[in-house]
Design a protein that fits this description.
- By secondary structure, the chain is mainly alpha-helical.
- The chain has two domains: 32 residues, no CATH class; 85 residues.
- Helices cover 69% and strands 0% of the residues.
- The protein contains three helices and no strands.
- Helix 2 runs antiparallel to helix 3.
- The longest helix has 50 residues.
Length: 118
């Protein structure tokens, strides 16, 4: 009978238990949690964790730019048209200032987005 087999009564021997403990050790188990600190190389573990954090921050920053850019492009012209409309009513001019304000708002929003992605 080998050390890895059960004896005739179906009871595990001490050597079987020892073999089981050695194979389930968390430092040699490739399926252990990625966030647990391995004993062998703590510097490498820390560097990998920092790299994952930097990648996560970069992804969030890209998502923020993707959400802010359309808002800046939409709000600039709308605000320009509105301010131009108010100026036209106050000065009694035609829709000239409203159009100029809208164009300036569009240019301002476009420049803001350009600088953000530059």
């Amino acid at each position: 009978m080998s050390a890895s087999e059960n004896d005739s009564n179906g009871v595990r021997t001490d050597s079987d238990v020892k073999d089981t403990k050695e194979t389930t050790d968390s430092s040699t188990n490739p399926g252990h949690c990625a966030d647990t600190k391995p004993q062998a190389d703590p510097v490498r573990w820390f560097d990998e964790r920092e790299q994952r954090r930097k990648e996560s921050r970069r992804e969030y920053r890209q998502a923020a730019h993707a959400l802010v850019a359309p808002m800046e492009l939409a709000i600039g012209p709308v605000l320009g048209f509105y301010l131009g409309y108010l100026a036209d009513e106050h000065l009694g001019t035609g829709p000239v200032l409203m159009v100029v304000g809208g164009l300036l708002g569009f240019v301002t929003g476009g420049l803001s987005v350009y600088r953000a992605f530059k």
